[in-house]
Specification:
The protein is an alpha/beta fold and about 325 residues long. The chain contains twelve helices and ten strands. It has one domain: Aldolase class I (TIM Barrel). The strands form two sheets. An eight-stranded parallel beta barrel has the order 3-4-5-6-7-8-9-10, surrounded by seven helices. The two termini are about 20 Å apart. Bound molecules: phosphoenolpyruvate and manganese (II) ion.
C-alpha cells in the first residue's frame, strides 16, 4: 500500500484528476458555477454536531415520515441509533398531497424531536415548508429539510439559507439536475455553504413505483459538484420491499449517505407507511450495506493511484 491508503475521501477526490471537470460539463452547468467542483474546491464537508456529511463517514438519516407520538419517536430514535444511524428524521410540518391528510404536529412535533435528540444524541433533520416557520424550525433542527414540493420556492430557500443551518435540499419531483443545482446556488448565494443535495426519485412514465430512482443523477452530481449527496430510496420506491436494494445501489453510485423512513409499525403509520421499514427490516438493510460502505473510496483510491501526487493539497 502506498501513502494514499491513509487519505480521507475528500483528499482522494482532490487527488483524482478525473474529477476536474471537462469543459463540456462546465459549459452545461455554467449558470451555477459555485456548486461545481474546481481545483480549489472538490468536496464540501458539512459539520453537524459531532460528525460530518461529505467526509469519510457514510451517514444514515432515519426515522418516521411524520412525528406522531412520543412513544413512536422515542422508540424509533433509540432503534435507528442502535442500528448505526447518525440523524433522526421526522416531519413536524408535513407537505401532504391531500389537504385532508394529517398535516403534522408543528411545534409539538419539534419538541418531541428535541426530546429524542436529548435521549439519544442523534442530530435532527426536519422539513420547513414556509419562510415564516424558518426561525422556529431552525431553533430545533440541526439540518433544515427543503422538501421536493418546495425546491423552487426561492423565498423559502433564501430565508432558510440565512438561518445558518445546513440545508438538505430535496430534488423536486419534476426537477432536472440543472434545476436542483440552481436552487443549491441560491442557497450558496445567500451565504450558506452547507448544502446537502438529495435524490429522492422523479416522476416518469413508470407508475409501478412511486417515483423513478435516478441513480444517474447521483453519479452525475458526485462527478460535477462538490456538495455532498444523500439518497432517499424510500420516497423513490414507495414500497418498502424495494428500499434495501435501492439503498445498496445508492452506496455504489457514490452517495455520501441515505435518508430512510422507519416506523415501529409501518401499517399503522399516519403517512408513508407502505414505504417505511420496520425495525427488523432497518437492521437487515443496514447490515446489508456494510460491505458496500467498506468499499467506499477504493475506486477513488485506484484512480488517484495513477495520478500525480501534487494534486493533493
Ligand atoms: C419526506 O421526506 O417525508 C417528504 C415529504 O419527502 P419529499 O419532499 O421528497 O416528498
Ligand atoms: Mn415521507
Amino acid at each position: 500500500m502506498n501513502d494514499r491508503g491513509s487519505l480521507t475521501l475528500p483528499q482522494l477526490v482532490e487527488a483524482d484528476w478525473s474529477a476536474r471537470l471537462r469543459v463540456s460539463w462546465q459549459a452545461r452547468f455554467a449558470e451555477t458555477p459555485d456548486v461545481l467542483k474546481s481545483p480549489q474546491h472538490c468536496q464540501t464537508v458539512v459539520p453537524v454536531r459531532d460528525f460530518e456529511i461529505g467526509g469519510d463517514e457514510f451517514i444514515t438519516m432515519a426515522g418516521p415520515c411524520s412525528v406522531e407520538t412520543e412513544a413512536q419517536v422515542m422508540s424509533t430514535a433509540r432503534h435507528v441509533r442502535s442500528a448505526g444511524a447518525r440523524i433522526l428524521r421526522g416531519g413536524a410540518f408535513k407537505p401532504r398531497s391531500s389537504p385532508y391528510a394529517f398535516q403534522g404536529h408543528g411545534l409539538e412535533g419539534l419538541k418531541l424531536l428535541d426530546r429524542a435528540r436529548a435521549a439519544t444524541g442523534l442530530a435532527i433533520v426536519t422539513e420547513v415548508m414556509s419562510e415564516c416557520d424558518v426561525p422556529l424550525v431552525a431553533e430545533y433542527a440541526d439540518i433544515l429539510q427543503i422538501g421536493s414540493r418546495s425546491m423552487e420556492n426561492y423565498t423559502l430557500l433564501e430565508t432558510a439559507a440565512k438561518s445558518g443551518r445546513p440545508i438538505l435540499l430535496k430534488r423536486g419531483m419534476v426537477a432536472t439536475v440543472a434545476d436542483l443545482l440552481r436552487s443549491a446556488q441560491v442557497i450558496l448565494d445567500n451565504g450558506n455553504p452547507n448544502v446537502i443535495l438529495c435524490e429522492r426519485g422523479i416522476r416518469t412514465f413508470e407508475t409501478a413505483t412511486r417515483n423513478t430512482f435516478d441513480v444517474t443523477a447521483i453519479a452525475l452530481l458526485k462527478h460535477i459538484s462538490h456538495l455532498p449527496v444523500i439518497a432517499d430510496p424510500s420516497h423513490a420506491a414507495g414500497h418498502r420491499d424495494l428500499v434495501p436494494a435501492l439503498a445498496r445501489i445508492a452506496v455504489v453510485a457514490g452517495a455520501d449517505g441515505l435518508l430512510i423512513e422507519v416506523h415501529p409499525d409501518p401499517d399503522k403509520a399516519w403517512s408513508d407507511g407502505e414505504q417505511s421499514l420496520d425495525f427488523a427490516e432497518f437492521n437487515d438493510t443496514m447490515a446489508s450495506l456494510e460491505p458496500y460502505i467498506a468499499l467506499r473510496g477504493n475506486a477513488l483510491r485506484r484512480a488517484a493511484d495513477v495520478r500525480p501526487m501534487e494534486a493533493v493539497g
